[in-house]
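It is worth pausing here to work through a concrete case rather than discussing structure prediction in the abstract. The textbook approach is simple: state the sequence, then state the predicted structure, then interpret. We follow exactly that order.
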Amino acid sequence: LACGHYRCAYPVHRNVLCVWNIATAQPLYLSGHHNSISALSFGSKIDPLLVCSASREHVIVWNLDECTQKVQEGFTPRGIVIGTLLGTVLHIRFSPDDQQVAVCTGNQIYMLSAKEEAILAKLDGHVAPVTAAEFCTWEKSMLISISEDRTFKARKFVWDYSTSQLIYQSGIITACPLLSLLIDEENKQIITGCAEGQLWIFSLISGHNYRCVAHIDLKKEQEKFCNKVWKSGKEIGEGQNNSKLCKTDDMRPEGSVETSLPILLIEHCDFFVCFHDEENTYSSQNTSYFWIGTSTGLLIINLANFELEATLSYRDYSDLSIQIARSCALMRKAANGKVLCLITSMFEDMIAVLEVNLAALMRTQHNDFLPRGNEKSLSVIARYRIIKCFLSMLDDRFVYLTLKYVFCRGKNTVKDKPLVFHNKIKSSGYSAAPRMTMFSPNANLKKQKASKWKASCECENKEYPLKSCPPIRYEKEVSVTCKPTPIFCVEYSGDGELLACGQADSTVLIFNSNLTDVHHVLSGHDGAVNSVGWSHDRKWLVSASEDRTLRVWSACNKKPALILGKEKFHKPVRFAQFYFMDTFILLCCGAEFHLLSFHLDTTKDDLKRYKQRSVCKLVEKFPMTSTMEITSLSAVNEFYSYIVLAAGSNRALEVFDLNAGCSTAVIREAHVRSVHQICQNKGSSFSTQQPEAYNLFLTTAAGDGIKLWDLRTLR
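Step two, the predicted structure:
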């Protein structure tokens, strides 16, 4: 099946091509094949509009304008044979300029000329039949292919068909064959689906090395969506009275069988065009939506949060004779707010044409979100707008008022007392073993030293410009290098005087706070710098790199005081910071984080000038539960706290108590995507409140948005 440019193409009597014009409702029959037609595709351009059909013996390109004219004149239309005896063709695709045609047959891909019978290139590499191939529109002569060998030969083969050279090849990514493929031009991503309902998204941006952006289990997402709507008492589709949207596994009828969910089609969804007559339906028109065609129905997925927006099941429509589809095709452009869909039956020679009213489908499943008619009352805010509204509130007055309250309160009510830690009275009973303390804070600070520290902090607080507006626009832009170089991390020192930047060129730059001068350039790493962190006393800077090393630098000179080499870590160090008032160093490596004790000594011995006098010792390793890699780590260094927070590639958030030396809580699926940043409320070192009160709230950021958590309830 094929759909494009308000036309549908499908085989009739197995070897006759029928092209149906939606505007005129007139079919055009094209004969030229002797065997069954196995693949169809429309061209990329409208003038001339081409369609290609393939069978075992011929691959034929038809000019529909010329064929229509021939029929009107009473002649038999003829196409151009561009390939002969290539074998069983599973997929064909035109290039963006309609000059070439990619033909997937067996384990090979033939690049054919669209104007004459000529093989331009023959691409090998797959070890099983190639199921789909797509051209990359922004990269000339690049073709991406997937196969039943469970690879996308590098998560999909990437070829340069002009030189017939393999550019990238992936390993096996799933246990089931890959069936469908789509290139998202807007986000420069490829989306592929397999026979088990798994969806993968990979980045095609230069420098990303085809990394996996997201993995979506459509069966789980469909069940979550169905349960949510089913609990609200809604029904799916139009004209259905008896079928509920979905049931959970424990409600499945006895004797029923759980089937697979093969992804037959991935296509762009003309989402906002279908709502052109409704105001304020969705606010973010930068969001991409896609149709997912499966053997049992159609799904609409939102690429901003990877959630389902609507689902349509074939079995819920009594008028539809096909309940399980073998193939599917969708019209990318909507006509009069409706999308045309073609499906073929798995068991019979039957084709069904569906007209899907997207606005009506969304309204039946999102009654709480979508406005109806000219209603002017406020509706519930859509879930992907909450984050946007929250951020806009922060940009307005919320941050300013909060900061003003904190600093004014600190100036008027803070007493001249150092921070006091209250110890609990232990029981003298013999029924339980005494609790072993891993480490405890040293609260015996000298009053004179604490008083000076407090006075300096008060001076800094008084200098805060309370009457100034919040920072809503940047004041200065500084080019850190002569050539474009990514900056992977930045961090201000606690007093705000210095700014450290870790760069992809393996250097660390230290600027003055006003960005007028480079204070230091620290070089020594052999890979990109992933993390930088200041000590509490602002004298030291720790940096972690992709070269599997960690360095501690003195803020006074350019030489490292401590170097931990590659023999200490089996994977790149993603994050490092000082911890427990500069008593330890925390770092994450792979799926675990390390707690290190250290002693820094910058003095040199003339006889052993090259020997490092600083020492570092591993205290403990803490593995995170069921994850491949820790993506973010956070701990408070401004006061004594035992809490360490870790986020993993499994989208979970885990809370560790280092005094107990174990994990205390796990928040599974904290976000739809992996958390890439954790921020804790660190508070003030001289507040009259207990420091633990500041450590009860945290913020996590991921690709699906920002969340504020309460550690007391883990919500």
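Step three, interpretation. The radius of gyration is 31 Å. The chain has a mean pLDDT of 78.
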